[in-house]
Write a structure and sequence with these properties.
Length: about 500
């Protein structure tokens, strides 16, 4: 399990831990851990390497002074830009500043124009951490713009300056944040480093626990996704089985002119191991899918939805017929995936939401931010401003497991648990990838995965497939949803092995 801690929880842990340690011990440990990370980034070339250290007015700046002193003692050519504040400073920060002043590090005025054009080999961002209160402006903003224009690695201390550590948004309005290549975060990992704008600003994240007693860490409802949370359900197959052993998936969708969506969902369902896959068309059914003749095409009317796990929504449209069919599907005592138009219909019709709330079998909703905004009766901006809160609220309101898609997809359970996914890339921002995800989730449910693990596994596999394709040179530009399908099969089998 990889827990994620809110700023408030981090503050509590730090307060109790600091109370048991000599003054400044945590800052010294943070500085040592960050200096080790910096030296690793400089590799063998650290002697005489020009390093720029930005030190802010608070304890994040204190960490930066500790790092600067270590790097100077290691022989790097350290330049410190100290953005001092007017307020009181903590004694441990004062001591760290004295260490930096006593070292070979050079202090220069915090001037953005002195950053460009220099052969920096590393920038250490110690401007702001979890104490950021306002958008970066003035000198701080100019320094951030200048380092963001550099080509060298940037190591952010605790949090990339300018980023909200809880939500992953750039503190605004008109704010900016350091786009770090690496972040070393202290005490515990933080949700804002992994969702919304977090992935674009934190780069690769490592956690420095500062040797704090694990007993001081409270249990947290928020975790980072990982195969440890669901891999046990990817079982190698016994010989004595038949297609019925792996369940039926029915895709309800395909209104006139939107047949591609259920086809993608159905293909994904088969390639993720579903025993059978039916395409149930709200419009005139296709005779067959020539590219995947294994898919059985049916008119939705008359189909027995109690005989399958249904993936409702791909290309379903918003007709009265669609509403009628969705009521049938909601009444079936089988696990269910709700995507796309099914979610839009839910947002429009209270009877559908009531039917969902009264179900006994689990349901999985897979909204993108706009579909989530409609269901929450809010704006897409509000959803993206606090994705964790949006996913948690929606899961509780619907009584369903919710997959809030986007950079750092957030999976929420009705009981308040939240998981942020770490796989995937901008190649997924293309038509049809949502249909593939819905079909994949349906297949895992049909094979008996519990709903929570099916949601976690589907999101993880979907992103990992996209990452594998990009690593092999396919995309991210121009990656197509259909290409994900066979790669998902490969990833699922790798997991089962
Ligand atoms: N808590 C821990 O786990 C550890 C903390 N360490 C490091 O300390 C920071 C948190 O330090 P803190 O002093 O609370 O906050 P920051 O250093 O992030 O900065 C807050 C100061 O900056 C001022 N501020 C805030 N926003 C702005 C802004 N947009 N522009 C200018 N100045 C700003 C703020 O002043 P106010 O005006 O808001 O009063 C504060 O002075 C943590 O991130 C760790 O790096 C320990 O060293 C390790 C354990
Ligand atoms: K920082």
């Amino acid at each position: 399990m990889h827990p994620l801690y809110s700023v408030a929880l981090i503050r509590t842990i730090e307060h109790v831990a600091a109370g048991r340690l000599p003054e400044g011990a945590l800052m010294e440990r943070a500085g040592q851990a960050a200096a080790d990370a910096a030296l690793a980034l400089l590799a063998a070339a650290h002697y005489g390497a020009p390093v720029l250290v930005l030190a802010g007015p608070g304890n994040n700046g204190g960490d930066a002074f500790e790092v600067a002193a270590h790097l100077a003692h290691a022989g790097a050519d350290v330049t410190i830009m100290h953005l001092a504040g007017s307020g009181a400073t903590a004694p441990e920060r004062d001591r760290a500043l004295q260490k930096a002043q006593a070292s070979a590090a050079r202090f220069v005025p915090p001037a953005a124009q002195d950053i460009a054009g220099k052969p920096w080999q590393l920038v250490v961002d110690g401007l702001f951490g979890i104490g950021l209160q306002r958008p970066l402006a003035g000198t701080a903003g100019a320094l951030v713009d200048a380092v963001n224009a550099l080509a060298c690695p940037i190591l952010a201390l605790d949090v990339p300056s300018g980023l909200d550590a809880d939500t992953g948004t750039v503190v605004g309005p008109d704010g900016r944040a350091v786009r770090a290549s690496h972040t070393i975060t202290f005490i515990g990992d933080k949700p804002g480093l992994h969702t919304a704008d977090g992935r674009d600003h934190a780069g690769s994240v490592t956690v420095a626990g500062l040797d704090i007693d694990p007993a001081l860490y409270p249990t947290t409802a928020v975790h980072l996704n990982g195969t440890d949370l669901f891999a046990q359900y990817a079982q190698p197959r016994r010989h004595n089985t038949h297609k019925g052993s792996y369940g039926n998936v029915a895709v309800l969708g395909g209104a006139t002119g939107m047949a591609g969506a259920p086809v993608l969902a159905g293909r994904a369902a088969l390639h993720a191991g579903g025993g059978r896959a039916y395409l149930c068309f709200a419009g005139a059914p296709l005779p067959l899918d020539p590219g995947q003749p294994e898919l059985m095409c049916r008119a939705a009317d008359g189909f027995d939805f109690a005989s399958a796990v249904t993936v409702a929504g791909p290309g379903l449209g918003s007709s009265d017929d669609a509403v009628r069919m969705l009521i049938q599907v909601l009444a079936a005592p089988r696990p269910l995936v709700l995507d796309a138009d099914a979610l839009n219909l839910l947002a429009l019709h209270a009877p559908l939401r009531d039917a969902l709330a009264h179900r006994t079998a689990p349901a999985l909703a897979t909204p993108h931010p706009l579909e989530a905004a409609r269901l929450l009766e809010t704006t897409i901006g509000a959803v993206q401003a606090n994705r964790l809160e949006a996913a948690r609220t929606l899961a509780q309101r619907l009584g369903a497991y919710v997959v809030l898609k986007g950079s750092g997809t957030v999976i929420g359970a009705p009981d308040g648990r939240l998981v942020i996914n770490t796989t995937g890339n901008p190649g997924l921002a293309t038509a049809g990838t949502g249909d593939v995800l819905a079909g994949l989730a349906g297949a895992l449910l049909a094979q008996g995965w519990p709903a929570w693990e099916a949601a976690l596994g589907a999101v993880w596999l979907h992103g990992t497939a996209a990452d594998a394709l990009v690593a092999a040179g396919t995309g991210p530009i121009g990656l197509t949803a259909g290409e994900l399908v066979t790669e998902i099969r490969a990833q699922l089998n790798a997991l089962a092995r």
